[in-house]
Specification:
- The chain has about 425 residues and is α+β, with helices and mostly antiparallel strands.
- The strands form 5 sheets. Strands 8, 11, 14, 15, 16, 17 and 18 form a 7-stranded mixed β-sheet that branches. Strands 4-3-1-6 form a 4-stranded antiparallel β-sheet, with no helix packed on it. The chain has a 3-stranded antiparallel β-sheet with strand order 2-5-7, with no helix packed on it.
- The chain is globular, with a radius of gyration of 25 Å.
- The longest helix is centred in the middle third of the chain and has 18 residues.
């Protein structure tokens, strides 16, 4: 299990892409993992034969744990993969079989104080709080006694006061199994993480939304004119997303509070714009981050957005790729939505939703002041903002800049 970032301590093996006895090439995708940050394919560290799978699908282990053995093919017959319900020993400390004592509820303040002395990840501490578990009562099986997610789940499964284990309390596969009406299937690891973060965001931020109608005719015509040549020259498709990102960057530079985050009773103003771009996957949603987007030209924005999207869909993202967003843009319009009311991506204080671009009859005011009705390409943009730090007037003024930038687009596209 590779170390994928300083904040990643464990991962769940969701799928082996090779079986014991298969030949593998160095850097060839070997297995898939799911962490609290990102799902990713892990490449083989060497060429040879996968002689043994030590950790089966559905099991959660710490980083640097040996999960398989690649040899030259001259060893004994390979072992069969381990099942999630009966993991074979792994190269990590294991606690002796025991029946954990039931958790004794504590006052939140006292429990938080005890937890601060226990080696564990933020995800583990959150899971413990949700299940009313005192981490100081658990014997960690991780390196140096660190309490892992599996330790918490085992505790929940075995304490006398807990109900019979449900599928959702055990590690789940990456994708949700096919189901028919009446079936009960476990949430995938990604689905569980998304659920936790969405609830956390709703509890944290005072969500308010405003919506603006934007005439995109100028940009639609420009894109139709330039898209073929753009792709030939730069090897990248010309999409609408960099237009929206650029307009947001311009507005964020006018209103830096929208690019801020809350830290306790303080407001952190960020020097650069790290644009989170939501990407829909077959089994969920992920938000890779385009770092220092305010320093990129239009071509740089398009290339960066394309690269992040492709790596998100092929599970090539690293944890650093999904960290550090200061403002997020999501595009439900690609699926036909007129607009959406997105939930803020913590710790951001705002998120912009992009609806579908459709042709509509619109009243157009000519230069001489006369009005006429014309068919225009229109999009509805929604800003979800945290009313704790952003007032309605600021949110509306921010969106006025976004609207003006898009409707009077003048930047060189390339």
């Amino acid at each position: 299990m590779p170390q994928m970032g300083e904040s990643i301590f464990e991962g769940t093996i969701t799928k082996w892409l090779k079986k014991a006895g298969d030949k593998v090439q160095r850097d060839e995708p070997l297995f898939e993992i799911s962490t609290d940050k990102v799902d990713a394919e892990i490449p083989a560290p060497a060429s040879g034969v996968l002689q043994e799978i030590k950790v089966g699908e559905g099991n959660t282990v710490q980083v640097n744990t040996v999960v398989g053995v690649i040899g030259d093919g001259d060893s004994a017959a390979p072992s069969a993969p381990a099942k999630a319900s009966a993991p074979v020993p792994i190269a990590a400390p294991k606690k002796e079989a025991q029946t954990p004592a039931p958790a004794v509820p504590q006052a939140p303040a006292a429990q938080a104080e005890d937890e601060s002395d226990v080696r564990s990840s933020p995800l583990v501490r959150k899971l413990a709080r949700e299940n009313n578990i005192d981490l100081s009562q658990l014997q960690g099986t991780g390196t140096g006694g660190r309490v892992t997610k599996q330790d918490v789940l085992d505790f929940v499964d075995h304490r006398p006061s807990a109900p019979a284990p449900s599928p959702a309390s055990r590690p789940a596969p990456t994708s949700t199994p096919a189901a028919i009406p009446g079936d009960l299937v476990p949430m995938s690891q990604m689905r569980r993480i998304i659920a936790q973060r969405m609830i956390e965001s709703r509890r944290t931020s005072a969500h308010v939304h405003c919506m603006f109608e934007v005439d995109m005719t100028r940009i639609v015509n420009l894109r139709n004119k330039l898209k073929n040549g753009f792709e030939q020259r730069h090897g990248a498709r010309l999409t609408f997303m960099p237009f929206f990102v650029r307009a947001a960057i311009v507005a964020l530079q006018h209103y830096p509070i929208v690019n801020a985050s809350v830290e306790g009773d303080n407001i952190r103003y960020h020097q650069h714009v790290n644009a989170g771009i939501a990407v829909a996957l077959d089994n969920g949603l992920i938000v890779p981050v385009l770092k220092n987007a305010d320093e990129l030209n239009f071509l740089g924005l398009q290339r960066g957005i394309t690269d992040l999207g492709e790596r998100a869909r092929t599970k090539k993202l690293m944890p650093a790729d999904v960290e550090g967003a200061t403002f997020t843009i999501t595009n439900p319009g690609q699926f036909g939505a007129v607009f959406g009311l997105p939930i803020i991506n913590q710790p951001n204080v705002a998120i912009m939703g992009v609806g579908g671009i459709t042709k509509q009859p619109l009243v157009v005011t000519d230069k001489d002041g006369s009005d006429s009705i014309a068919i225009r390409s229109v999009v509805h943009l929604t800003l979800g903002y945290d009313h704790r730090v952003i007032d309605g007037a600021i949110a509306d003024q921010f969106m006025v800049v976004v609207k003006k930038t898009l409707e009077s687009w003048s930047e060189e596209v390339g």
